[in-house]
Amino acid sequence: MTAAASLSGGRRGSIPLLLRVSDATAAILLAADLVVVCISVLLRFLFNAPVEWSDDVARGLMVGSAFFGAASALARGENVGVSFFRDMLALRLRALVDAAGALLIVLISAYVAYNAIKLGTLTAGQTTGSGLPLELTFYPMGVGALFMTVFAIDQLCARPLSEIAKGLVAIAVVTGLYLAWDALLPASVPSSGTVMLIGFFVTLFGGLPIGFALALAALIFIWVEGSLPGVIFAQQMARGIDNFVLLAIPFFILVGYLMEANGMSVRLIELLQRAVGRMRGGLNVVMVTSMVLFSGISGSKMADVAAVGSVLIPAARRSRQNPGGAVALLAASAVMAETIPPCINLIILGFVANLSIGGLFMAGLLPAALMALVLIAVSIIFGKPPASVEAEDPEPQIPVSGLWSGAIASFGLIFMIFTGFKTGFATATEISAFAAAYAILVGSLVFRELTLKAAAHSFVQAATRAGLVLFIVAAAQSLAFTLTLQQVPHAVGDFMLALSKTSGVWLFMLLAILVLIVMGSVLEGAAALIIFGPLLLPVAVQLGIDPLHFGVVLVIAMGIGLFAPPLGLGLYGACLIGNVPIERTVKPITGYLGLLMLCLLVIAFVPSISTALPRAFGY
User: What is the pTM of this model?
Assistant: First the structure.
């Protein structure tokens, strides 16, 4: 064996160990976060003894868990990107694009790691508001990004050396051409903002994962501008997720995985099948109803799709339904459930746009109910007669008493979430922590199905999925920072305001819906909301549109884009869960999305559908 081969074998052999370390670290930090938040709330409520440092510790743990989780996601190849245009390229050109993308991921990860660790050294001696060392936020972020860099290098080195060399040459040629242009004809060089946008869309359509495309766009601006230090980039990424509100994201994702592991989801879905599964189109009605209930518990859209789809798509195959139509309805139900609390995108929009999260939760209920009723009506009208379902559908094996126990436990979780918001007992983050603790207790003590191994696996899955989402949020914040420096939000606001004053508020609403549908199909949902929510909401307020109503419209429009073919990343995820080619879903999903689009227009131009409940509950 040559020295190079031996080195390669050792490197490849060490990656699984590093991945286990990354998984364990992300999961332990998430578990510690859960303990800190729960104990803090109990001490405050039972003994009136608030823990001053709990918020700072919880935020720091989340930042560390997010970057280690994102590193694990990168190692497993779970990062989402737009592959539609890349797949249209010839094989040689696709290999070149992929190699260049792999090199860029290494570059971005290393840059984040270096500047996060440097930021930790620069802030040494500084403290948070509660007196804790400030650098404890940045060092875990830097180490997590360092793991990300190692995993990115491993994936790069798995490629043929010739492809790596061609990718490196391609990046060097593009950089060299820009530098030569800047040196020879500086007056004609595009602005740093223009170069940033070109770089973003080229890399995005080239298949670079969304989080890295957003981060690279911000880095391009920093490098071209030349006056900003690299630590600003790391600081903005940390700032993007260093917020107690965002802790609800990993906790609600954790609830979704725990429900799947502790048997709660299977019991609830099977009870629904017993109740309405035998009516005309009953299986489809069960699917829509299940998405309504699960979205009100877990908050994570893909966790909902996985929990419902893993049970009902096989049932659709057994009943000889078209699995493509079943996956299409599953995707459409996920769009409907975008505004059912505690949806993560509502939490993100409330955070970035400074809106009441409780108010958004209330505002989303009636619009979701309207869309759910439309989907249920269509399912019944065009559904299969019950006789054809009964021919193949086996009787459930779980006793009825067991099914009811699962339903009661699930509704107990829903009751706890809404009661917590209404009574003011806890914030969204604190309620999500108690929801996770509740799922653990029910699974281990009541159902006795949640083993220690299954719980640990749920924590690893939740930390990895949350890391994916929060890395995109962090990268989007760095891009939002550069857009603010260029006064893009102000320019967009002025343009939209002038257009609406001459053409009417209705045109602004239609344009906002169009923008979010298009960008929701290109970007991951969170990224689209982070970038465009703060841009459009101030304009809406100036035009007299209720911000909670407008926020709900934005989230639904983003959801339609997220599941719209051919680019919608959510649709690809649903197809993977249902094991169905996307081509078989295009026709049925187009019909479902058309109905949801009509519902969205009704919601957009009848504001009382969104504002009635918030006003009734005092938001």
Answer: 0.81
